[in-house]
Records
---
Amino acid sequence: MIDLRSDTVTRPSRAMREASAEAEVGDDVYGEDPTVNELERRAADAVGMEAALFVPTGTMGNQIAGRVHTDHGQEVLAERDSHVVKWELAGFSQHAGLQVRMVDGDDRGVISPAQVREGYVAEDLHRPGTGLVCLENTHNSKGGTAIAKEDVDAVCEEAHDLGVPVHVDGARLFNAAAALSTPAPELVENADSVMFCLSKGLGAPVGSMFAGPEELVDRARRERKLFGGGMRQAGVLAAPGLLALENRDRLAADHENARALAEGLEGVAGLRVPTPETNIVLLHTEDTGHTAEEFLAACSEHGVLGVPFDEHVVRFCTHLDVSGEDVERVVERVSAAL
Ligand SMILES: *Cc1c(COP(=O)(O)O)cnc(C)c1O
């Protein structure tokens, strides 16, 4: 079975398992786990922020951002198809009492400074005030689009002009950095915080990082505790995380595989497969005469797994455990399935 459902399905390497077994550990709630402390330092450096916090999931990292940046009952501005809007159980409203004001990005999920200004709500007797702008890079639902630094900066500038901080949901920030040839610290240079996942293309079994200025990360640590995310000898999880950071350099290979996959599948029995920007390939099944679900059922019988994104849209993800040969096999199997 070739599993392209997500870049989260990778299994930890032998080296990761060994690092885990041998990790020096302590009680991280007391700040005494040296491996976690090292991961937090290295992760902060990786995104050019002052400090970072190890969190169990990207979702928790984003939810913590909602709480540290805003006052209960404010608004958060987010792109309509973003993860925080679609896939986090309305967490911003549950955890931070936020009302989400959705903005329609363009077909790549980019929102403009004008949309930020338009969506901004000034606090007064009747209106809650905008407490946060949340960006996503790469943008998952739009097909892993890598949002350029100037687009991120333009939104940050407008938001800051309005006195509103910006959090970047960078679950796949290093994919964006690789695709754009822009170092990750530059991509988030003007943002106020960023979350990135160790557990996706970087291949760690568990974990994400929330990064920002030290004072903000200190408060994030209290919020993590509130969420029940204070972990003890978490060095056994941080050790694979440190190795995952080393995998930043190989993400370009996933992108190449994704492009090869798209090229191989484009036009097969009516499939439409736009050239991907990173490791997420969207397949449009409408002209094959099949729904995404029907298409995936046939693929599964031929040994390929993906996920439905829409009635006629399927997502295939390339990752650490998918080789160039696997890509060729996927093209053969999908062709056979169709
Ligand atoms: C996966 C993902 C998250 C959440 O990460 P989890 O570790 O699965 O909670 C957040 N944002 C985006 C864009 C993602 O793709």
---
Amino acid sequence: MAGTPVPATEQARPHVERFGVDPFGQLLVGGVPLERLAARVGGTPFFAYDRAAITAAVARVRAALGRSVELGYAVKANPMPAVLGHLAGRVDWLDVASGGELALALDAGADPARISFAGPGKTDAELRRAVAAGVLVELESPHEALRLAAAGESLGLRPRVAVRVNPDFAVKGSGMRMGGGPQQFGVDVEQVPQLLDLVADLQLAMEGFHLFAGSQNLQAEILVEAHRRTVELLLGLAEKVGTATSYLNLGGGFGIPYFPQDRPLDLDRVGTELAGLVADFVRPAHPEAHVVIELGRFLVGEAGVYVTRVVDRKTSRGQTYLVVDGGMHHQLAASGNFGQVIRRNYPLTVGTRPAEAAAGEVTVVGCLCTPLDLLGDRVDLPPADIGDLVVVFQAGAYGRTASPEAFLGHPAPAEVLV
Ligand SMILES: *Cc1c(COP(=O)(O)O)cnc(C)c1O
């Protein structure tokens, strides 16, 4: 495929089909034509998340995983309160990674018993809030265990903990590796026995283990292998704990397709193999344990679009530019500056006429005064002029809150759950 650019119209087609087009040729989001949605929101740019698409993603995962595996949502993927409120009643766990996310999860109505708190740099204040709320703290170091115990003592409460493990294997094929080798996350598996002794000495309520090997994986066979090794490793560690293990968080990392070469994950295969692992290895030793898969982007990423309006169209030495009123300050990932090694275009289209034939190559740039603010590099889009809406797909996860919103002082984008 190298050297054969895929026309943006082709790259966007499956996404246009998922969202649908109204009789006048406009993209629909949650059944609302895009211009009408822009009017309802009050202007551009904005993020729109399709409620039904989130519900459907949860249902697909549940159907694939079966009843023996519980589903967690990693709040950092999209912490919009309305999205969290929608998900809080539909998933079994919320995974938070800051005091701010903890507050959002509690406000969304999540049961504190089913909130887990991960993250390598939890402050004393955050640990205190976590203990007071009664959530499960995923320990990332011995020092954190000491500080957590102090928080518990001062509050007269017994902190609930799980140990986050940095495995001695790495998962290939992940967009972002977060386990294996040296890591700031978790405790190396070989150091876990010592930490378990400390946890027992401190009389923390030890509930189980968490292992997150990496993110954005589209290859079922690699995920299946990671799950197999994760289960093996965590069951071995659970044997070293004096008390019953009630929590085994196997991570997640289920990817979504962003680029032309990306094939959707074979979810059924992952689910079937995982259910088998749980039945064969976990249940005999831990019949009651919560076995959790925690997902972020897989539940919300495909449900979101980022909508901008074309404010200028100009030509520079033969290259046509569409300048839109949004950009990398809202949707950094689409500019290629969020963990991409080689910049590739996110799927995008002209939301006011997504079904029309490509009208020639244009480059879509944001409104920031930096060459980094590139949303579509030489893309073959339907015809677009000043006033048209340009839509970036796969924007439901790591969008607004993963972008440098203050950069260049433009206003924040609106967000709507439709
Ligand atoms: C970020 C993160 C996730 C979610 O990753 P996705 O790729 O969005 O599914 C899950 N677990 C942990 C510990 C994370 O840090």
